[in-house]
Design goal:
- GO terms for molecular function: 2 iron, 2 sulfur cluster binding.
- The chain has one domain: Beta-grasp domain (Ubiquitin-like (UB roll)), CATH 3.10.20.30.
- 18% of the residues lie in helices and 27% in strands.
- The protein is built from three helices and five strands.
- It has a five-stranded mixed beta sheet.
- The longest helix is centred in the first third of the chain and has 7 residues.
- It is globular and about 35 Å long.
Amino acid sequence: MSTITLLTRAGSHEVSIELNQSIVALAKKNNVVWGHACQRGVCAQCRTHVLEGAEFLNEVTPEEKLRLRKAERAEGYRLGCQTKIVSPGTVKVAHRPY
């Protein structure tokens, strides 16, 4: 079974992956606090650091290109509301708001 590990200030939460669901949607469904406000890629409260499994995620969206600096994206930062799991695998992400 493919899983995603969500790291927050409150600890580590391992949940089952659902394809084509965003990090924010998976966190909400599993009652994991993952700060967000707009869910449109504008506020960046859901800023996420991909630690493992980037190859199982969708490509960087235009919204992420507008909101995150190129250097941030190069370091593995994404927006949790825009980042979706598109293929089975093990993913590990951390909530890293500004």
